[in-house]
Amino acid sequence: MERNRELGFRMAKKSHSSTHSRSHQTIVPSRSNTSAEFSIKEQRTEDWEGDSPNFPSVIGTCPDMCPAKERAQRERLGDLSVFERLNGNPRRTSPSLAVRKFCRTISAMHMQASDIRPLEVLQDTLTYLFNLLDSSKYPFEVVHDFVFDRTRAIRQDLSMQNIINDQAIHMYEEMVKFHIISLHKLPRFSSNPSISSLHFLNMEQLMKSLVSLYNLYDINRMSNSINKNEAEFYSFYVLLHLGSNSQSMGESLSLWFRRLASTIVKSKEMCFARAVLRFFRMGNYKSFFSTVAAEASNLQFFLIEPFINEWLQASTIPISAPL
Amino acid sequence: MAYMSMGEAHRRITEFLNRFSEAVFSQDGPSLKPLLAVSSNSANLLSLADALRVFQDASRLIKQSDKYSQLGEIIVPLLRSFQSSRIGHVVDAYNAFEKSANAFLQEFRNWESAWAMEPVYTIAYEIRVLAERADRELASMGKNPEKLKGAGSFLMKVFGALAGKGPKRVGALYVTCQLFKVYFKLGTVHLCRSVIRSIETAKIFDFEEFPMRDKVTYMYYTGRLEVFNENFLAADQKLTYALMHCNPRSEGNIRMILKYLIPVKLSIGILPKMWLLEKYNLVEYSDVVKALKRGDLRLLRHALQEHEDQFLRSGVYLVLEKLELQVYQRLVKKIYIIQKQRDPSKAHQVKLEVIVKALKWLEMDKDVDEVECIMAILIYKNLMKGYFAHKSKVVVLSKQDPFPKLNGNPVNS
Asked: In this predicted complex, what is the ipTM?
């Protein structure tokens, strides 16, 4: 189909000039194809998951959620998550339970096609992982931790194969949603110190997936297809920057707005986010609360929640005003 | 184009080669400079390009002569660049120029004195301009526009060659400014940070030693960065420096500085006169200024909406949005003044419903709760002195200086 934008083989290059945690993707026309198909030349920074020296992107052939080699190795080492254990056995798993783990030090040169999962398998894996979220057998933090890691590996596989079509967009959108819902569901106050690091890491991956998603939107926009969810997902960025220490999260909002397409800026969801931002920054919590109550989608609300809590706790609301 | 004979072509090319090598061997920077300016399209260079088309074997000419062959690595690609530029092959023109520039930089490193500073400035300028042209062409062909990024890398190399203790360091600020232009154009503004750090913290650089024109450009760009990050005092300081030291006849440059300085000044409570806005064609700000003077919230909102795209693109939208509080302050102050005229003894008590009414008159529908909230914020941020009597829904203003002026400080966060 015309909208299917699977790529040909293209050299991906690692950028050394940027030290900022951001990925830039530029488009290079695929040499191997005639119709308007594009491939990404990905320029990532040091903290991209897995390194990307000059190597051609491949098409994976692994049929399972976890490559057989890794399955065998982790069985040997007893490195299996509770969700992967066959009958509770810490040293036995199966193709229907094991999911490829995220590995930071992956060298794509040593990855074979049989170790990489193709798009359809990745889709099935993602569906499987999200179904786990509904189970109540384990506390949410435990499920979150597992899904967090395994979805990161999915993103890694998508990147290595340079998949940028609508299906990839949909998968990224689902993963962003997962991180936002986790923001809401992970217990906020806990004596367990690892919970706060879970929050921090969750936020980090939320931002990363969101930025990658924006790149995908950009690329697809060039072929004139505007995704119906775009506006809402762009609005998330604004809501993530409500707080005062948002400078640490990336470029200033003013800079970010400069590059935004006009249709996005004027969309209903973005106007909502901008209004919320305005009220928050001014301290006009009356309008803030009434606007949020009236117009926020669930996901937007989850992003706003932490700031409401922060406000209430810090008691920066002027005393004489009613709530 | 008039017919050029082979002999004439040969003569022109040799003339160029002579001028080039003479300039290098006698270390004459100002003479060498125009011979590198591909984009200038000077008559000399255009006719040289024509000559190159007629006499196609210039590179052999260069290699065979002792005089020119030493500079062959620089000149051969340079001539190619002239030729490509002449026939509109802008991407080839860039690629060839980059080659030549790299070869020139190699030689430059070996020259101890800073005689070639002017030619280096020209090269730095040209590589950016040619890259921009090439990228436009690439983008229009649906290809990846990567040349400007390459130009940025080259400029970093040049910066490296200048960042030393010797006399060459005086050129570092010019190259920095070219880098700023590249990064702003590419949208990779965060990359400015490392260059800024080098300029501002390295001991080899003394800011005052740099040429004034470079200092102005530098302050303009760093001032803009401060605006993006809403550091208004720093932005004011830098942009004002740029304005003060800018050539008063460069109206275009003054306008560019004012475009960013005005929102900053507004944020610290200083309003420009209308004639200034008119003189420099910055009328997009006139309604904003009027709104601040009158306390007219509706006008502010309208101005932001009307010029939304422009303000968003330049990055000042969020700054202007913040002015809303000052507009509220002005509105309440006006009510206070009117009340004072009617009954001075009661003036310092402002009923909430009066404010609600005033806002309604401005077609801004706000209920009592919201107005109360805003009054509380004004007090909290020291834009208004007094207290709020919740039960009777009255703002009781301080008898002394109830509306403190900002006095060059941004509104308290």
From this structure: 0.82
